[in-house]
Amino acid sequence: MTAESVRWGILATGGIAAAFTADLVDLPDAEVVAVASRSQASADAFAERFGIERAYGEWGALAEDADIDVVYVATPHSAHRVAAGLCLEAGRNVLCEKAFTLNAREAEELVALARGRGSFLMEAMWMYCNPLVRRLKAMVDDGAVGEVRHVQADFGLAGPFPPTHRLRDPSQGGGSLLDLGVYPVSFAHLLLGEPSDVTARAVLSEEGVDLQTGALLSWESGALASVHCSIVGGTATSASITGSQGRIDIPHGFFFPDRFVLHRDGRDPEEFAADPADGPRNSLRHEAAEVMRALRAGETESPLVPLDGTLAVMRTLDAIRERIGVRYPGEDPAPEAGPLSPVRAVTPA
């Protein structure tokens, strides 16, 4: 790093890489110095589009580029373990897209690698860095709705997606859960931590990926979370948090909200809106800014997106997949539910 900027490398050139880079180049203290793709032509085109100095036609050259402070890994999640691991092995810091990996075992390997080398690693869960989501969490933690009893969140796309699409491809970790369901599951984790029990049902495609999944997560406190994801129906992407003394509703776009509404007995509803100064509600700049803040502070993990939290989310996603019978090629052994039991009675506090 220099006093003026943090130097970024971009690994992959798809849609999310372009969206992130477009937000990144608008940050005055960020400099995108290199990009890599498995195709030199794709890397060259991306570099020309964003004015990036170096373009590599293979990932290893980017990983070995010592002029890079941090690499943003934007491949499909089926390649996250390999791509992020390559960068960490070469001594690079990494921001890795979600879902973090295919399963908890791969996630544990990346976290162990980063911690063993003292490198920075963070999941690109931009929702956790969103200023309005952070405000909502702080209010819930301060008791705005009392003790949390229930969380609801959904994320679905209408499609239709043909069998050749990556969302239908088991070899790319296809299905609704890892691509979309990671958001409602992570939202529940943000507010309640790791659940003690998971039940789930899904509709599977002919290829063996989940077209839509519903899960009920439960905690020893008596709290429940209802989460749903789909690639066969567009949902409201709404969320709600019900507590013993009130409720918070996010009418739409819960992972990048423009507002939320607090309801408490005997009081008028209170609306909390996003600050226009924070930029567009779909901006990815907040997670980039958090990475750069952490690097300058000498931190190897972000307190907003802690690695232990990422591992917990991956364990929950594994448990859901175990319940619905989804396994991806090359997973050996099959993902296990970990400490979660298939059926457990939960006694309200």
Please give a handful of descriptors for the protein shown.
alpha/beta, disordered C terminus, 349 residues, eight-stranded mixed sheet, 14 strands, six-stranded parallel sheet
Please describe what this structure looks like.
By secondary structure, the chain is α/β, with parallel strands linked by helices. It contains ten helices and 14 strands. The protein has helices at about 15-25, 40-50, 60-65, 80-90, 105-115, 125-130, 130-140, 175-190, 285-295, 305-325; strands spanning about 5-10, 30-35, 55, 70-75, 95, 120-125, 150-155, 195-205, 210-220, 225-230, 240-245, 245-250, 260-265, 270-275. The strands form two sheets. Strands 8-9-10-7-11-12-13-14 form an eight-stranded mixed beta sheet, with helices on one face. Helix 4 (about 80-90) packs parallel to helix 5. The radius of gyration is 20 Å and the shape is globular. It starts with 5 loop residues before the first strand and ends in a 25-residue tail after the last helix.
